[in-house]
Structure formats: structure tokens, C-alpha cells
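Working notes for the structural subgroup meeting. M.R. asked for a predicted model of this chain before we commit to crystallization trials. I am recording the input and output together here so anyone reviewing the notebook later can reproduce the run.

Input as submitted:
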Amino acid sequence: MTPPLPDILARYFEAQNAHDIDAMIACFAPDATVRDEGRDIAGTKAIRAWKVETGAKYRITTEPIESRDEAGRTVVVANVSGKFPGSPANLTYRFGFSVDGRISTLEVR
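Returned structure, recorded in C-alpha cell form:
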């Protein structure tokens, strides 16, 4: 069962599973930053390129299994399946939010 998530994160994970790049990018603030696979990605143009690249490479789907607040961030643990060694795996997503409620920071581990 999916844990309760803020609306913006429910939309983000729904778009992720639909492989809808435009809907995913709409969840991010223009100056958002992402940290994934040891890389820092800044701004929605770079985040779009990251999503296109990782989408083609891994074709992941996510199932959030836990959500909690931690030090001003929303932490979501999700079961992630796709074309990568060790699939499926539980990954931790740490989200920060902008004043308008969009994703301002995302760290994936």
C-alpha cells in the first residue's frame, strides 16, 4: 500500500511510472537541484536531460513504501524496478520544497 504523500510527490511518482518527462519536470522548481549517481544536476533543463538519459537507460518504475519527515525534508523509500543490476532495490529519495510547493532539491540513494 502506498503511504500518504504530498500531492506534488504523488504526481512525481505517477509521472515517473508513466515515463512522462513533461509531467515529471512540471514537479520541479526552475532552480531545482538533484543529486543522483554521484552527480549534481541543476535547473530544469539539466533535470530534463537527466530524466531522458536515465529513463532510456533504466526504464524504472517506483513503488513508494515509506514516507517520513526528516530535518525539514520529506524522505520516501521506494521499491525501484528496472534494467539495472540488483533490480528491484529499495532507494531513498530525499525531497526539499520551494515556497510554491514544487520540488527544490532531490537526493537519490
